[in-house]
Amino acid sequence: MTVNAKKAKPARERIIDAANKLFYQEGIRAVSVDAVAEKAGITKKTLYYHFKSKDDLVAEYLSSRDQPNLKLFETWFESAEGDTADKVEAIFLELAKSARHPKWKGCGFLRTAAELANLPGHPAMKIGSEHKKKFEDWLAKQFIKNQLDDPAAIARQIVLLMDGAFSTMLVHRDAAYAEEAGRAAKSIVRAHIDAEIQH
Amino acid sequence: MTVNAKKAKPARERIIDAANKLFYQEGIRAVSVDAVAEKAGITKKTLYYHFKSKDDLVAEYLSSRDQPNLKLFETWFESAEGDTADKVEAIFLELAKSARHPKWKGCGFLRTAAELANLPGHPAMKIGSEHKKKFEDWLAKQFIKNQLDDPAAIARQIVLLMDGAFSTMLVHRDAAYAEEAGRAAKSIVRAHIDAEIQH
DNA sequence: TCAGGCAAACTCACTGGTTAGTATACATAG
DNA sequence: CTATGTATACTAACCAGTGAGTTTGCCTGA
Questions:
Q1: Chain B residue whose CA is closest to A30
Q2: In angstroms, rounded to a whole number, what is the distance separating the alpha carbons of residues B12 and A21?
């Protein structure tokens, strides 16, 4: 790859791309600013021209993952066969599939929150919290569409299973946890669909 | 504090105590070996006399939390009123209570796994995995006692909700997630108790 | 059309401080 | 006298962030 080929993308974008790969693969504190700059093919000073600090870069890294991640879950949901319960389970089954990739390292938002737990005011923490909340709200909206009772509670139970799946799969390196979480999620949603029909 | 008062506990024990507090509060990579040595009131060389590396110390830190943590969950379960479903919910309610403490920083095992996700062979990862598995097995054993069907699957669903509660509470700093997880866990167990009675 | 200016984007070389880990020596207890 | 434990002082690498200066591309005015 030539220098010109690299420069096809503007520097700021290349920095975010590099940060994405390195922070997700290695962790925040394990990756130096120098390493990100080198991977982006620029000098550290240029990085500091575009981002005012490492913390700022970390926040931008998470921001850049927000929409793509949400979109992915929505696609998994929408393109699944069956009723809402099946579609919810599909998210977990796709997640299990992803987790089997050797480069899978859990949820970047959860891992960042775990690593920065001692800095509750860190900008990245707020971005992570908002991202997770958006997913929970989107789920609740799907349940409202289906006129399920207490959509917020069901959505919350699903995200609990989802983040549980992320965590346990990272600890055990076993994608079967997401499949079990999917079964639990499906049966929770199914129970509420049945309740609605009877009523 | 005199030197003698410090020496009441052997150095090794004081190092583990210091590592416990610092690694849990601040994170693994955020805490230097110097900081642990200083908190323990010894020099770094003494620390390296007792532990061969920082990685070794991290593994010992997690090992030291294994039994106390399991014991705590068992106590919460056993001292709760009601049937098995209520006792399972009690674990989540006590967890929510703990999480409201300002010094609460999630589950040390999960946070360590998140931070060391790029080092799958790290000794601490194995200890974390075994700890979580022990809790899952202990739960399954409780369900076997009650002659519930498929105790392993129920136990796994409960730990998924539990680790989900740990994660979401860390991200949102909101103990309500553990309470919702408790409701979900209780109704899963209750459903299986009812199924058993009908049969 | 082109000189001149200017700001954005960039590089090289550096600072002060921190990191994990160690060489050497000294103390104390059995 | 030997094994265990401790301290001082060090290394070599690495860290986030910066000072000073250079290139690039675009706009302006004659």
A1: B29
A2: 39
